[in-house]
Amino acid sequence: MKKFGMIAVVAIACLTAFSFAPTGGREYTPLEQSSDMESGYIEQVQTRDGHYMLSIDGIEWFEGQEAIAPFLEREGDSELDGPPDGYYIINDESSLHDLPIAEDAEVLMQIYNRTGNAAEADIVWNEPVSIETFVKLLNTEDDLDIKSFPYHLTVQNGEITRIVQQYVP
Questions:
Q1: For 15, 50, 93, 140, which has the most beta carbons within 10 A of its beta carbon?
Q2: How far, in Å, CA of 52 to CA of 103, rounded?
Q3: Half-sphere exposure of 62 toward its Cβ, with a 13 Å CA cutoff?
Q4: Which residues contact 30 (CB under 8 A, 6 or more apart)?
Q5: Please, where are the H alpha helices in 20-168?
Q6: Is the pLDDT of residue 152 over 50?
Q7: Is 137 exposed, middle or buried (0-12, 13-18, 19+ CB in 10 A)?
């Protein structure tokens, strides 16, 4: 009986230690927009001339205080004083454009199916993944469809150098 009790204590101690272990930070911080950044939904990925190309449906992304004015302008009759989740997306024009991904592009994810079981997906803020892993995730049919998330793309010299998944609650 003492042996079982000791195993239970060790198991609880390990689980407690792991539950408090940092996983890239647990606090959400809004992504700072820059002049070379474009936000949008990724419709598809394909290979052209040996490079990955993303087909992107551009959006306007507003967050925090900056989301209130466009929300009230468009949703003023909603009887809310701002967007319910703190962000607002405008996608008036659903037109696609293609951009190549630079070979050394950085990809940062917030949530995705790491194990093959979407129910086990959890948030890890700004978790780096390889371009190949990202492309594989885009092409995987899953309950947690990563194409349903907006992305912030840094575009320099006509190619994507950074991809950041935007988590939406």
A1: 140
A2: 9
A3: 17
A4: 63, 64
A5: 65-75, 131-138
A6: yes
A7: buried
Residue whose entry in the numeric block shows the structure tokens 């990563």: 146
Closest CA to 23 of 112, 115, 124: 124
List alpha helices for 21-154, DSSP H. Answer: 65-75, 131-138
Q: Tokens 């936000």 sit at which residue?
A: 39
Largest CA-CA distance found in the chain, in angstroms, rounded: 68
CA distance 63 to 65: 6
Give the angle 111-51-136 at the CA atoms, nearest 5°.
30
Burial of 42 (C-beta count, 10 Å sphere; 0-12/13-18/19+): buried
Read off the pLDDT of residues 10-42 as tens digits, 9 standing for 90 and up: 333 333 333 334 444 557 777 788 889 999 999
pLDDT attached to residue 79: 92
Count the Cβ atoms, other than its own, within 10 Å of residue 59: 19
d(CA 12, CA 18) in angstroms, rounded, equals 10
Q: Which two tokens stand for residue 108?
A: 């940062």
Q: Are 51 and 98 in contact (CB under 8 A)?
A: no
Q: Is 18 helix (H, G, I), strand (E, B) or coil?
A: helix
